[in-house]
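Quick one: structure tokens for this chain, please?
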Amino acid sequence: MSHKFFTVILIFIMLFSDMLTKKAYAYLDPGTGSYVFQVIIAFFVGALYIIKLFWARIACFIKSLFLKKKKKE
């Protein structure tokens, strides 16, 4: 079966399931937005910490790339 067939079936299922949904009567309280904001901040702080942790290796790798180019010339 082809990729297009599965795509058409998936779209059909998504549209059909959308017609069967009912109202949820739910809401997002202000704490939810605060939690999402905290997760985003934690992700960026964690990424910066990982970069700091491996900065010597990253710098050494980049220097070795440029040194190889100079040696070839």
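The chain has a mean pLDDT of 84.
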